[in-house]
């Protein structure tokens, strides 16, 4: 190892701390949810700060929840337009625990790396800019301007702008992301990997190819009036809890909900709406009318079966498919029908692991109704054939004409609260010619015309030492990305790593030769510039742009807003010699928005129109406008069945979230919906598989994966018997990212295969 590489642990201490198991829960939210929300809030923020901020979250003039991207209704509840996990996200960022110079002078990065991700996050908000110098193991304070100078000098020294990489996580505002993306381009690179490369990139690719826009088409009202909603590969009870209210509303209006998921996730089973008193007192409401427990990555077998059955019913009674829509708007109908003939019903059914009786019920609902919405998340996007999986579900919508009309359409449910907006305003590793043209015209510089690195390529470039400076606008790249060991080696090859962050995580400990930790505001904090209260904007999962105005006193006087940090970095780098007045942009966000309006398609008078409940960005699918696609038509696609070539002892592992985490930020050690308390190092297994592998409840195992002859290991997991299809396992990320090979990802989107990793289980004790 070279000298600057410090002795850092990638996992923290692996000891078990005393797991408690209960039965998985049948009902999501309810009083327990409210209690948990308040417990986290009061503990982290105190009562006054909690009440003040919770009441403003998602309200008209307040701030947007920092958790997920689920849209806020036009008439939000005055008492609680937030969920348990939104409250946890807020408590996590608005915590009154702080760390600065004193803390870092006492604790070295080597020592801190022995802590678990949970313990690291618990340390609190970073309250002053810090630097880790070459060969040193303690962060020390640095003045802001010295930090900008340090980055600027490193950037100036690079031989080629493509030796720098600018990563973005999806919590940044449109304003910050826009400045960041424009700075990267003005500097000369499109190396802009972002968290969406690991997330919904597969949805973006799948939808762009088939419908002409990489976003979903439905609005919130469409869910309320849908006749059938499919919730596929998604766990809304934990990850998008406010969505349960929308599903509940759909059911009240007579709609049916089908859940397609290897697990019967609690939120899909029953829900007690915290905004409804009779719900809270009663037993709540069943959400899924039908649950299809599909085997991991067998969605294509399932959708083919559904498509075949719909086509067969249509042959008898031509009302089942929307022939008028198909004739007018859709390409590839005859080819699809011919292709479906190649498949045998029983073979498909066996692969799915779902009973034909249940599949027939789903087919009947889809045959009899046409106002259909399909929602999905990571259960579809993180497989080798993720793009195809999504396109198969789009095939269903297209045959049913459930596209571009009220109460029907696509709903990829986004992750981070502004991941969709970040992409809209220019965070992308590929070249968008329209945007480049507008940059030349309105920002008066020439953006680079070669594509840059996405997440996978960024890791490889750092590993091969082609990249030397790595800047991160939020996130926890090391732990979020696949192949933790390989990614750590890659990051440690850099000369400089820069993290613009709110809280400490392992990406601040595994660093380049020099590392900067630049603390920034959270969403809930008040951002005043020259006596003016600033606001920011975000785009929800349904494409609505709304403003967000923080109200809490910032964690310290020494932290700065994201737009200001980026603007000052650009100002320092260009030394005032650039077509954009960077300094001014960092001082007045209206100015940033006026540039966004000029350069980004669909944005218009954003400073005005984002007020109140905001405005929708244009969406061609809503208008049934497919002119940008081949023949000007929506595309049906032919997709094949996956082949994992599993060895006899291999199982397919999906890496999922517990109820007590936001991605790599671990709020607590419980996953109460799944009955797990006080432990995260667990692996959920089918009882038959356990028997076959000679395993008992709570045995300690190591997990191994082998790809291209390379063995990877994640140590120390407790086996938990669970209702999961045979041949499948589940465990939490980020602990399991050690197993995901960096060079295995979805075709076309390069999203890591985090939901279908081939794994063997080794009993340790
Ligand atoms: N509280 C909280 N909220 C969050 C997050 C968080 O960590 N915590 N993360 C945010 C982010 S960035 C994102 S992207 C979203 C993630 O939201 P989700 O996608 O709901 O998150 P996961 O836990 O990855 O759950 C994936 C679901 O897919 C199922 N699944 C796995 N494989 C398959 C398959 O092959 N087929 C089918 N049909 N289903 C499958 C799993 O059983 C699981 O229910 O949530 C966002 N919101
Ligand atoms: N195995 C496996 N791996 C996965 C996934 C999976 O399902 N399985 N999911 C993938 C998905 S969907 C995603 S989106 C990625 C997530 O990848 P990332 O977005 O990179 O990770 P997060 O854990 O969301 O980032 C958390 C950190 O962001 C910083 N932060 C929080 N709020 C703010 C803010 O307002 N501003 C700034 N500047 N920083 C802030 C804090 O320092 C915090 O520690 O992980 C991916 N990785
Ligand atoms: Mo995500």
Q: CATH class of the largest domain, anyone? A: Alpha Beta
**CATH architecture identity of the largest domain:** 3-Layer(aba) Sandwich
How many alpha or pi helices?
31
Query: Radius of gyration from the CA trace?
Result: 25 Å
Mean pLDDT: 95
Biggest β-sheet, characterized?
A: 6 strands, mixed
Q: Terminal Cα separation, in Å?
A: 33 Å
Describe it for me?
- This protein folds into 4 domains: 31-91, no CATH class; 97-197 and 418-611, Rossmann fold; 201-412, Dimethylsulfoxide Reductase, domain 2 (3-Layer(aba) Sandwich); 651-763, Barwin-like endoglucanases (Beta Barrel), CATH 2.40.40.
- Strand 30 and strand 31 (710-721) form a beta hairpin.
- The two termini are 33 Å apart.
- The model has no long low-confidence stretch (mean pLDDT 95).
- 36% of the residues lie in helices and 17% in strands.
- It contains 31 helices and 33 strands.
- The strands form 10 sheets. The protein has a 6-stranded mixed β-sheet.
- The protein has 765 residues and is α/β, with parallel strands linked by helices.
- Helix 15 packs across helix 19 (356-368) and helix 15 packs parallel to helix 21.
- Keywords: Iron, Iron-sulfur, Metal-binding.
- This is FdhF/YdeP family oxidoreductase.
- Residues 125-501 form the Molybdopterin oxidoreductase domain.
- It holds the Pfam family Molydop_binding.
- It comes from Flagellimonas marina.
Helices and strands, with pairings:
Layout: E1 20-21, E2 28-29, H1 30-45, H2 47-56, H3 84-93, E3 98-99, H4 101-106, H5 109-112, H6 117-122, E4 125-126, E5 130-132, E6 140-141, H7 144-157, E7 164-168, H8 174-187, H9 201-211, H10 220-225, E8 228-232, H11 236-239, H12 242-252, E9 256-260, H13 266-269, E10 270-272, H14 277-281, E11 285-286, E12 290-292, H15 299-316, H16 323-329, E13 330-331, H17 333-340, H18 345-352, H19 356-368, E14 372-376, H20 378-381, H21 386-399, E15 409-412, H22 419-424, H23 433-443, H24 455-463, E16 469-473, H25 477-480, H26 484-492, E17 496-501, E18 514-519, E19 528-529, E20 532-533, E21 536-539, E22 544-548, H27 562-574, H28 582-587, H29 589-599, H30 606-609, E23 615-616, E24 634-635, E25 651-656, E26 661-662, E27 665-666, E28 676-677, E29 682-685, H31 687-692, E30 700-707, E31 710-721, E32 728-732, E33 757-763
Parallel strand pairs: 2-10, 3-4, 7-16, 8-9, 8-14, 9-12, 13-24, 14-15, 16-17, 17-18, 25-32, 29-31
Antiparallel strand pairs: 1-28, 5-6, 5-18, 10-11, 19-20, 21-22, 22-23, 25-33, 26-27, 29-32, 30-31, 30-33
Helix pairs in contact: 1-2, 1-3, 7-27, 8-27, 9-21, 15-18, 15-19, 15-21, 24-26
The structure holds ligand MGD (2 copies) and molybdenum atom (MO).
């Amino acid at each position: 190892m070279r000298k600057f590489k410090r002795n850092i642990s990638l996992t923290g201490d692996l000891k078990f701390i005393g797991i408690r198991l209960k039965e998985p829960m049948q009902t999501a939210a309810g009083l327990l949810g409210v209690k948990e929300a308040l417990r986290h809030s009061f503990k982290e923020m105190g009562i006054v700060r909690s009440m003040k901020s919770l009441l403003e979250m998602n309200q008209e003039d307040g701030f947007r929840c920092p958790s997920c991207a689920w849209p806020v209704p036009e008439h939000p509840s005055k008492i609680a337009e937030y969920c348990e996990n939104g409250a946890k996200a807020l408590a996590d960022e608005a915590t009154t625990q702080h760390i600065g110079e004193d803390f870092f002078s006492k604790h070295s990065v080597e020592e801190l790396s022995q802590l678990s991700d949970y313990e690291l996050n618990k340390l609190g908000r970073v309250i002053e800019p810090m630097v880790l110098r070459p060969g040193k193991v303690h962060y020390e304070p640095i003045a802001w301007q010295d930090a900008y100078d340090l980055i600027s000098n490193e950037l100036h020294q690079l031989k080629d702008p493509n030796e720098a990489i600018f990563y973005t996580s999806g919590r940044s505002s449109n304003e910050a992301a826009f400045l960041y993306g424009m700075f990267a381009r003005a500097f000369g690179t499109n190396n802009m990997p972002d968290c969406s490369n690991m997330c919904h990139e597969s949805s973006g690719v799948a939808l762009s190819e088939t419908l002409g826009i990489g976003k979903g088409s439905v609005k919130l009202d469409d869910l309320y009036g849908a006749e059938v909603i499919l919730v596929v590969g998604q766990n809304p009870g934990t990850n998008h809890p406010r969505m349960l209210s929308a599903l509940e509303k759909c059911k009240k209006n007579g709609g049916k909900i089908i859940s397609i998921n290897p697990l019967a996730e609690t939120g899909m089973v029953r829900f007690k709406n915290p905004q409804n008193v009779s719900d809270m007192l009663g037993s709540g409401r069943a959400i899924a009318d039908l649950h299809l427990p599909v085997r991991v990555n067998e969605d294509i077998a399932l959708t083919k079966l559904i498509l075949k059955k719909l086509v067969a019913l249509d042959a008898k009674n031509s009302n089942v498919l929307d022939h008028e829509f198909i004739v007018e708007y859709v390409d590839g109908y005859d080819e699809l029908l011919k292709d479906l003939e190649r498949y045998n019903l029983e073979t498909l059914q066996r692969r799915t692991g779902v009973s034909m009786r249940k599949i027939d019920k789903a087919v009947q609902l889809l045959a009899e109704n046409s106002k259909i919405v399909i929602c999905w998340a990571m259960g579809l996007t993180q497989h080798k054939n993720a793009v195809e999986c999504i396109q198969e579900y789009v095939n269903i919508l297209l045959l049913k004409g459930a596209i571009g009309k009220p109460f029907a359409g696509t709903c990829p449910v986004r992750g981070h609260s502004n991941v969709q907006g970040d992409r809209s305003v220019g965070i992308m590793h590929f070249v968008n010619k329209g945007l480049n043209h507008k940059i030349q015209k309105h920002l008066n510089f020439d953006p680079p015309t070669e594509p840059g690195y996405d997440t996978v390529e960024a890791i490889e470039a750092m590993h091969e030492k082609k990249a030397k400076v790595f800047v991160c606008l939020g996130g926890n790249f090391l732990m979020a990305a696949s192949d933790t060991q390989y990614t750590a080696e890659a990051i440690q090859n850099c000369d400089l790593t820069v993290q613009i962050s709110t809280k400490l995580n392992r990406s601040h400990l595994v660093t380049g030769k020099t590392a900067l930790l630049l603390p920034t505001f959270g969403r809930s904090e008040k951002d005043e510039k020259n006596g003016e209260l600033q606001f920011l904007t975000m785009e929800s999962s349904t494409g609505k742009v709304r403003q967000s105005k923080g109200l809490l006193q910032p964690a310290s006087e020494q932290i700065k807003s994201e737009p200001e940090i980026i603007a000052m970095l650009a100002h320092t780098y260009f030394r005032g010699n650039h077509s954009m007045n960077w300094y001014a942009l960092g001082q007045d966000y209206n100015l940033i928005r006026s540039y966004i309006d000029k350069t980004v398609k669909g944005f218009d008078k954003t400073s005005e129109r984002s007020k109140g409940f905001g405005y929708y960005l244009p969406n061609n699918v809503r208008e049934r406008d497919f002119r940008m696609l081949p023949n000007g038509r929506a595309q049906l696609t032919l997709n094949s069945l996956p082949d994992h070539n599993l060895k006899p002892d291999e199982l397919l592992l999906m890496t999922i979230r517990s109820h007590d985490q936001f991605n790599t930020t671990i709020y607590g050690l419980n996953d109460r919906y799944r009955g797990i308390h006080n432990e995260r190092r667990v692996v959920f297994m089918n009882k038959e598989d356990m028997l076959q592998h000679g395993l008992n409840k709570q045995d300690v195992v190591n997990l191994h994966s082998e790809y291209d002859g390379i063995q990877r290991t994640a140590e120390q997991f407790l086996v938990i018997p669970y209702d999961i299809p045979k041949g499948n396992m589940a465990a939490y990320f980020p602990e399991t990212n050690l197993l995901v090979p960096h060079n295995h990802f979805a075709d076309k989107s390069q999203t890591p295969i985090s939901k279908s990793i081939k794994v063997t289980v080794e009993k340790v004790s």
